[in-house]
């Protein structure tokens, strides 16, 4: 009987939750689509082919049991579907909103290969957990027996929050230290509300606080305490800072006012959404209203910037990317959303110089073409000598990715080993750095990556932190 409810992909077409009309949704920062109605979620879940080898799960960094919770959703067993999805992910409704499913689970769906359109996994995942919150199925964290040991986590982003939850379940006292005034990291300040409304993040944070996890906000390691001082205070340390330093380019005119780093622009916008006082937004510096905006980059951060600029009332928004559409790193769905909202993409183009008297007024652009493949196998962009042109620009946003900050210097810990790229050198199995009891996860180890990978790293490191701290107890007893 259960099997009869599945395998409906031939007769039932792919259908995502309906998006709001582009002109209307571009006026606010609410999410652009509502969640499924219950019958629609069950119908779309029933399209799953229940593969013997589920490539969707194989290509999910968290190894989510996707076909199983799709089947439960199709059968109307929604609470069981939620509980199963929650086994492998600490933030399923967040992953359902912001994971690039078209490059991960849905992009590897078998029925997608057959031409029937992938199962809408992300939208169903979002629906399941949103329903769980609405119905009260999301239970408080069950804290394990007190162990008498504490952990200090540096960074309240997805990796740090995930590790904190599992460590609290294991009975450890958990302290989270973050430079911002709110927890969440890029989930809070880097991702716009139209992709991830902030109450979705804050309710996760509140659940952690209710479990007794202690948050120390506006706390900078190196200013408020050195790494060594934190090691002396806690039995183990987890570094989960992410990477925040904007990648820069050496281009004539780069120092002109009106040229901003993407994260500065996005953080100002998100703070306004919280109702904070943001002088740099209010005085127009980080506000795109009425301006010709040029965003440089082709990743998901660039997509966040162009769509934010539209919502702020920009006069025009153009995105320059040095490769073509097929070779861009960002989600194709995000590109489509941006185009619907009025963003113009200028493919095969790169800034040659920025021009203006006191502030940027124009971007001189080099036309590019794709040459031979580079070391990664992608065709390398090269300048087309006959294709230069100029764009008007009152605001330029640099969305070229992020690099790690100099943590050994910032943390006052010169002995902390880093790679030649500045990421922390950590054991690829245990996550331990060269400093005993100091572990690291997420982008600060991997380099700029996806939220789902940070969640995985935060989940996986807990076992190794636990083992290390238990060994310390055994050593102390043996020495006594």
TrEMBL record:
FAD/NAD(P)-binding domain mapped to chain residues: 151-458
Highest taxon of source: Bacteria
GO terms, molecular function: 4 iron, 4 sulfur cluster binding; metal ion binding; oxidoreductase activity
Cofactor: [4Fe-4S] cluster
Keyword Transmembrane: no
Protein keywords: 4Fe-4S, Iron, Iron-sulfur, Metal-binding, NADP, Oxidoreductase
Domain named Dihydroprymidine dehydrogenase: residues: 25-136
Short name of any one Pfam family annotated for the protein: Pyr_redox_2
UniProt-listed Gene3D superfamilies: Alpha-helical ferredoxin, FAD/NAD(P)-binding domain
Annotated NCBIfam families: gltD_gamma_fam
Official protein name in the record: NAD(P)-dependent oxidoreductase
Organism field: Sphingorhabdus pulchriflava
């Amino acid at each position: 009987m259960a099997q009869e409810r599945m395998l409906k992909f031939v007769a039932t077409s792919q259908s995502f939750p309906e998006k709001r009309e582009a002109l209307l949704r571009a006026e606010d920062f609410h999410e652009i689509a509502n969640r499924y109605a219950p019958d629609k979620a069950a119908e779309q879940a029933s399209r799953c082919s229940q593969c013997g080898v589920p490539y969707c799960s194989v290509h999910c960094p968290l190894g989510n049991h996707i076909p199983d919770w799709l089947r439960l959703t199709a059968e109307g067993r929604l609470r069981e579907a939620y509980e199963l999805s929650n086994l492998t992910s600490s933030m399923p409704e967040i992953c359902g909103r912001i994971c690039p499913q078209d490059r991960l689970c849905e992009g590897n769906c078998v029925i997608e290969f057959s031409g029937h359109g992938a199962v809408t996994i992300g939208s169903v995942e979002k629906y399941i957990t949103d329903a769980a919150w609405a119905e009260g199925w999301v239970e408080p964290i069950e804290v394990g027996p007190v162990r008498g040991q504490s952990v200090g986590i540096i960074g309240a982003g997805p990796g740090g929050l995930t590790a904190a939850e599992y460590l609290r379940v294991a009975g450890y006292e958990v302290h989270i230290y973050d430079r911002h005034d709110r927890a969440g990291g890029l989930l809070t300040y880097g991702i716009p509300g139209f992709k991830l409304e902030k109450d979705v993040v804050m309710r996760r944070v509140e659940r952690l606080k209710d479990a007794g996890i202690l948050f120390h906000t506006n706390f900078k390691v190196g200013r408020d305490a050195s790494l060594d001082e934190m090691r002396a205070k806690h039995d183990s340390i987890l570094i989960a800072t992410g990477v925040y330093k904007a990648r820069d380019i050496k281009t004539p005119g780069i120092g002109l006012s009106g040229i901003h780093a993407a994260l500065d622009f996005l953080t100002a916008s998100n703070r306004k959404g919280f109702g904070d006082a943001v002088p740099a937004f209010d005085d127009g510096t980080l506000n795109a209203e009425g301006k010709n905006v040029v965003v440089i980059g082709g990743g998901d951060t660039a997509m966040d910037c162009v769509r934010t600029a539209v919502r702020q009332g920009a006069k025009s928004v153009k995105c320059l990317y040095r490769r073509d559409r097929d070779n861009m790193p960002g989600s194709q769905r995000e590109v489509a959303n941006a185009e619907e909202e009025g963003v113009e993409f200028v493919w095969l183009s790169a800034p040659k110089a920025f021009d203006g008297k006191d502030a940027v007024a124009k971007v001189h652009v080099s036309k590019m073409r794709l040459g031979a493949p580079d070391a990664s196998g992608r065709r390398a962009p090269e300048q087309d000598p006959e294709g230069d042109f100029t764009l008007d620009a009152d605001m330029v946003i640099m969305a070229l990715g992020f690099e790690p900050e100099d943590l050994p210097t910032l943390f006052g810990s010169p002995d902390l080993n880093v790679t030649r790229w500045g990421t922390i050198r950590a054991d690829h199995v245990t996550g331990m750095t060269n400093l005993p009891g100091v572990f690291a996860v997420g982008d600060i180890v991997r380099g700029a990556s996806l939220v789902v990978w940070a969640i995985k790293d935060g989940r996986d490191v807990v076992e190794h932190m636990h083992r290390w701290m238990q060994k310390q107890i055994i050593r102390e007893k043996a020495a006594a």
